Amino acid sequence: MKKFGRLVWSIFEVIIIVYVIAITAFILCRNKYGYTQFGDYTFDNVSLIDERNMTVAKKGDLLVIKNSNDFKVGDVIYYYAAYNETYVVRSDVILKIDDDGYTSLFTIKHGDDEITVVDTRIIGKYTSTYKGLGAFLDVVESRVGFLFLVLLPIMIVFIYQVYEFVMIIRYERVDEDENDDDEVKKKVETKKEVKEEKIVTKDDKEKEEII
User: Fold this and answer.
1) Which among 2, 50, 136, 178 is most buried, taking Cβ atoms within 10 Å?
2) Is 51 helix (H, G, I), strand (E, B) or coil?
3) If you average pLDDT over every residue of the chain, what do you get?
4) What is the dihedral of CA 40, 45, 49, 50, to 10 degrees?
5) Rounded (to 5) percent helix, strand, coil in the chain
6) Quick one: what percent of the chain has pLDDT higher than 70?
């Protein structure tokens, strides 16, 4: 039963460690626009503002956008748009692409307006959507969420590891003390046996002399 409990706890520890590493990576790997990015993949925890500017995702979803270079007129693309000193993700249709060999400018239809977006603000056009995961990440990435859902679990694992380390040292000391006691007992018993042998030998000699 104890072995099964330790196995369950070990699996729980691995899950917690992987979970904490993943969440920490989401928080630290932010690009200059404030969004999590791993290589060619950009992650957007869809907010109400984002929802109003796209059609494939709803508030609370996690939208994963893959970077691509095969844009053409008529494609729906995702890009960063300035909004109240921050950036939001929008999706609109490409009307025109101007490429001078160094920079590409995309003319995009947003609502009834046509706007121009530089290629450095283009995210991509291929997406995957995960329902509800964006809301969870929003909570975890907040200060209170990070404290209770990231730091607290890893602290529990750390404290348990320290407890196990202390118990191992304690048991090793107990074993050493028991071994020392056994050695002392053996030495005492050996001395007694030697004394008894000497007494027996002495008595035998005395008997021989009398005879």
Assistant:
1) 50
2) helix
3) 80
4) 30
5) 55, 25, 20
6) 81
In angstroms, how far is the first alpha carbon of the chain from the final one? 70
The pLDDT tens digits of the residues spanning 76-101 come to 899 999 888 889 999 999 999 998 77
Question: In this predicted model, what pLDDT tens digit does every residue of 115-150 receive, in sequence order?
Answer: 999 988 999 988 899 998 998 888 888 888 888 888
In a domain, 9, yes or no: no
Number of domains the chain contains? 1
Are 56 and 63 in contact by the 8 Å Cβ rule? The answer is: yes
Please check whether residue 147 lies inside any domain of the structure.
no
| CATH number of the domain enclosing 57 | 2.30.30
Determine, yes or no, domain membership for 182: no
What is the value of pTM for the model shown? 0.69
Q: Say which residues have a Cβ less than 8 Å from residue 49's Cβ, sequence separation at least 6.
A: 83, 88
Q: Is residue 138 part of a domain?
A: no
CA distance 72 to 76: 9
Structural domain containing residue 92: 41-130
Mean pLDDT of 69-74: 87
